[in-house]
Amino acid sequence: MIMRRAFTTCFFSNTLLRFPIHATTNTITTIPLLRLHSLSQYHTCPNPNHIPNHLSEFEQLLLEKSRVGFDKLDDALRVFDKMLRKKPLPSVIDFTQLLAALVKMKHYSAAVSVFSKMCSFNIAVDIVTYSTVINCCCHLKRVDYAFALLAAIFKRGFVPNVVTYTTLLRGLISQDKFLEAELLFKNLLKHNQVEPNAVIFNTIINGQCKTGNTSQAMMLLRYMEKKGCMPNVVNYSTIIDSLSKDRLVDDALGLLGEMSDRGIQPNVVTYSSLIQGLCNLNRWDDITQLLKDMNRHKISPGKHTYSILVDAHARDGKVRDAEYLIELMIRRGQNPDVVTYSALMDGYCLRGELDKASVVLRTMRNKGISPDAHTYSIFINGFCKKTKVDTAIHLLEEMTLKGLTPTVEAYNTILDGLFRTLRLDEAHKFYKKMLNKGVKLNVVTCGILLHGLCWNGLVGEAMSMFHKMESCGFVPNIQICNILIHGLFKDGKVDEARNLFQNILLKGLRPSVITYNSMIQGFCQEGLLDEAYKILLEMEEHNCLPTEATYNILIRGCFKNKMYDGGCLFIDDMVAHGFKADASTASIVFDLLQLKEQDPALLALQKKFMP
DNA sequence: CTAGGGTTAG
């Protein structure tokens, strides 16, 4: 949940990790110079009619997919050529529609080329054309070019409209420049440069949600209303989705109620977001209720909704139910897509049933659906779980070779797999490869590195890496601290662990129950029972309730340090809370009972366990 | 003719 946040995926600094902000090789500076007929170079890909037998299923499917895409591009370009020869020339609107068609096919660089050719032919363009091309630049991750076009708009005396600015804001946000976007937006409002509507507000609301500031997004929702811009179903749905992802589903349901009070009809997206949130909390009864509500409002679940449900069941191990849901959606006229099938494959992979996942892959292929980068990630994860890291690496290479960009998740999974199989050297090399490829590292990568180093007895390295990351502006989350605390205690570095723990609050983080448990376990191991006990008091003070694990750790700690009275007290406490001894604690207790020591506390314990 | 919300990893 935290991982999806753009700003926690931030910045190990460039200096430390030599992490390129963006590959400078992929500029579009050259695109305006590209002559249109040279676009036929796109056809130099292997002839799909000559697919060699040794290609994998993944590879064959990719070739087919690309063939379809390129044919359409070719059509569009032929139309453009025809338009250029027409006399009189078609209107700006016709040309802009052609650009829109290219955008729809995601051929952004081709669209930019067409635009530059239009300019060189002195075809009149308008603000709409400019906005379209700005959108293309943003998709090509060249926000700098987008702003250069904005300058051109001013220079030619056009006036940017709300669409132009919305596109630019989205471009900034997609490049993790949310603060810049927010600043631009504020200035636009301050100087009345734009009449804000629900869409431009939603762009900022969405940015706030994606950077973990759902409450600010909520405030902006109230603000737009105050400014006389009525929030619509999209504004509400954006926030409802974010709340659901923050596990605040009840707040999200509250907003749903507010919508109906105001006569704003929720749609399938609104409901899907809520269902997703409820799935994460396993609130199946509420899900059933929402599905009934949808039915009552004549909103039928879409492909997306079914995918969410398939995913939830599959992750919960209920692959049979997930299979049934897919049958059901087909019966109801919704065609499962690559996401739906991938969710099912994920379910099988998580159960270690890779053969069954492969069967699903074949089913999907037979329906003409190609695996995507996420499908690969799922199999990579499956193989890593089975410690078949080499196969996973092979898959990664295969997808790269075939033009699919592996996600950071795929890289992370393999990096973790290498550490877990104690292939330290290779992990190091692989990490370097990630940096070279310009993979956008995130907080998970950081956790894997630190955990991997600690696990392999290199706590010192982990700590110095952590400090360097921090000094470069990396903001750790509580899981990162937990990894380090665990590692420090494992290496007997009690003072450093204590120090890190005390700094957690200063970093603006809240210790989790795992943090407290790790501290208690660490102190127990070192025989510092009173410090362990202080942590227990501290966690209660901070409204972090001890779990079964907390008691087990404390009880084991007491007995290992021959503090039988204390151990018995904690057993009473644990029982009073309805918790049970785990296998490890139980075995210690039974071992103790075997001893003939006539310790009074042990006798009492004996009575408790053998009435 | 142009812009907005819902699916993935430790």
From TrEMBL:
Domain of life the protein comes from: Eukaryota
Pfam annotation, one family: PPR
Ranges: PPR repeats: 126-160, 161-196, 197-231, 232-266, 267-301, 302-336, 337-371, 372-406, 407-441, 442-476, 477-511, 512-546, 547-581
Keyword annotations from UniProtKB, A to Z: Repeat
InterPro entries: PPR_rpt (IPR002885), TPR-like_helical_dom_sf (IPR011990)
Gene3D superfamilies: Tetratricopeptide repeat domain (1.25.40.10)
NCBIfam families in UniProt: PPR (TIGR00756)
Family stated for the protein in its record: Belongs to the PPR family. P subfamily.
PANTHER family: PENTATRICOPEPTIDE REPEAT-CONTAINING PROTEIN 3, MITOCHONDRIAL
Protein name per UniProt: Pentacotripeptide-repeat region of PRORP domain-containing protein
Organism the protein comes from: Daucus carota subsp. sativus
